[in-house]
Every structure is written in structure tokens, then in C-alpha cells.
């Protein structure tokens, strides 16, 4: 089967681009946005709606496969590619990239994905968002041609098995939205609330006492309205603010996390991004020291690395440094989804917790593709996406997971031929 034609259509992500460097400098909050100048190149304002590009592959038999080019909210910082602006890439897409796709035989996912992920235009790799969208579309196309789910394609080409049970999902929410928290509790989300901190001076008290108060509130609400036997894990994304607050004084950070763990009882607590280094080496050293001292102090708070892990090389370095309990494999940051697959499998092989992450900035299609990768690679848990609403992301992901598991099981017991899920 060949690709007979290619279309590129601009679209809308589920969230925004945010100039995180400007936010961390203390720009004045103005509702959802901020007052003051931008800091990161190519931003026109500190908060701006993010755009996407859909890669639409029309196959010889008329079937249509697609993937979405999108990047993360905090683009252009911590070693990431610049903010993805479709207008800067359309000429390349409609020219060179379309020429590489049009007329191509689609026989397997892995080889073609690796080719596009490593392709260089004038000596530079394609933007991560472009590589992300193209490889999604290729996986979708291979699944349509083979009349199988995308999960089955990944499992076959990477010699894994497809999970027969749902992968736990970490919902996302805002610090100041108690009704959102309640909705996630009523829906029995596996991990929550994934609310996040961006600026220590604006959001944390002197000793981060309000962090423990917030975590205690979450635990109290679980007990108040959660079903009997419901035991979610509590996850908070600190965005490096504990390091900022305590000037990277690791004993002080560990003591703070010890208080937070007490506040979370009887539920387990995970903390994402307690510190952030200015370079990868500094980041790994800081994370490693926090982890070592947490263990020495008997504080049971696993930590999640989510910065300076933008590439397979970054993730391998983090694993080698034994710097974290989990790594967030932030899918758009890794470019081609082939890298995401390799990253999850590498973490599992080397005893590192695998958090299949991503961005609020994604789309319905990239979220569905993520579900199939999760089913085929079986990370410890994955993030709810796209957007920060929670309900919509859970609907998209739980339904895609449920019908995929059901279809694969139905087929395995001989009740169905090779039906498509497109």
C-alpha cells in the first residue's frame, strides 16, 4: 500500500504556550495571563494559544491516516526546541516533507518512523512537533493497512505484549479548583490531582506550609467523597519551586517533603519536579541528592523527573545517574513516537519507573495514539491529555483504551476477523 497524497492542515491544541522563563522571573499575574515582557525567543506574549498541524495521509485505497504536530506548553526552555509556530514550517512541510511521503510504500512503522525522526533539513533535524505528528500518522497508516490496532502494530514491531488491563491515568487540575478535584475523585482517577506550582514567591509560604495544607485537603476530600476501597496516589508538580524556595538546600527540601508525606496519609504521595537545575548535569546531581537524602531520612516520597529529559540520551543519562524514581517521558519533547516507545522500554529494562507523559498542549488524536503506545509498552502510569479540563481527557483516553482492549480480546478468542479501528 502506498501514500497517494499528503495534506497539512493547521489546527488548535487543547491548551497554550507559556513563556516559563518569564513566569519564573516573577511576572505579575493578570487573570490567566501575565503582565510584562516575554523572555523566550519567538514568543509574542507570555501566554498564547498554541496551534497545531495535522499530517493527513491519503492511502491508495482511500483510507485516511493522520497525526498531529504539537509541542509542550513550556517550549524553548531546559534544552527544548523553540515554540512550534506552524507558519514557520508550512513551506518545508508542503515541499520537502510532502515529497518524502507522497508515493511511499507503507510496510512497517519502525523503519519509516526512524527515517523521518533522524531526517535533517540543511543540517538540522525537523522540529520535534513535526517529527511527532508525522510518526503518529505513519503508525495510524500501518494499523489501517494491517487491519489491526495501533497497539498491536507497536507490540509486533517491538516484540512486546499488549496489556489486557487499563493503564493507570494521572489526571490534571488546578490548585484553585476544588470542584475539578471532586469530579476526578468521583470518577475514581488512579492518580491525582497533578496541580502545579510555577513561582515559589507567589505560590508558596516561607516554609511551604501551604503545600502540606493543600495535600492534606486533597487527602481529606478523598476520604470524604471517594468510594470505599478507592486508594488513589496523590501527585503534585512542584515545577522546581522547592529548590527555588529553599535555595536548593536539600535537607530543608527533604524535611518539607516529609511533612507533605504526613499530610497525605493514608495515601501515597509522589512529587514531580521538586528541583530544577540550570543544566542537565546540575539537574541530575540535584535530583540524585534529593533522592538519596529522602531515603536516608526514611521519607517515602518517590520523585518524578520531568525536565532535562527531552531525548533518549537525556533519559539514559538520568537512568545511569540513578537520579529519580520515575521519569516523565514527555512525548512531544522526544519528537518521533518511536523514541517514546524506546524510552518506556528502556526505563522498564533498567528498573526506572516509566511515566508516559505528554502535554496539556496536545490533541485528541495524539492522545489516542498515546493510549496505544501505553497498551503496547505498559508504563507504570500515563498522563491525562489533552487539556487541563480532566473530564474530556479521561473520556477520550479511557474510551480508547477500553474499546481497544475489548477488540483485541474479542479477536484473540476467535470471534472477529481483522477489523479496523481508524
TrEMBL record:
Keywords: Lyase, Magnesium, Metal-binding
Reactions accelerated catalytically: (2S,3S)-3-methyl-L-aspartate = mesaconate + NH4(+)
Site (Transition state stabilizer): 194
Record-listed Mg(2+) binding positions: 237, 272, 306
Any matching Pfam family: MAAL_C
GO molecular function, one term: methylaspartate ammonia-lyase activity
Signal sequence coordinates: none
Residues annotated as domain Methylaspartate ammonia-lyase C-terminal: 163-408
Residues annotated as catalytic: 330 (proton acceptor)
PANTHER family recorded: O-SUCCINYLBENZOATE SYNTHASE, O-SUCCINYLBENZOATE SYNTHASE-RELATED
Subunit structure: Homodimer.
Protein name in the entry: methylaspartate ammonia-lyase
Organism expressing this protein natively: Mesorhizobium tianshanense
